[in-house]
Amino acid sequence: MDPVDCTGRLKPPAAEPEGAKSVLWAPWRLAYVLSAKEGGCILCAKAAQTDDEANLILARGRFCFAILNLFPYNNGHLMIVPFRHVDKLAELTPDEMLEMMCFAQAAEGVLRAAMSPEGLNIGMNLGKVAGAGIDDHLHLHLVPRWNGDTNFMPVLTDTNVIPQSLAETYRQLCGPLQNEVNRFAALSPASAGGSTPQERD
Question: What is each CA distance from 194 to 54, 88, 95, 181, in whole angstroms?
Answer without folding.
Answer: 31, 23, 11, 19
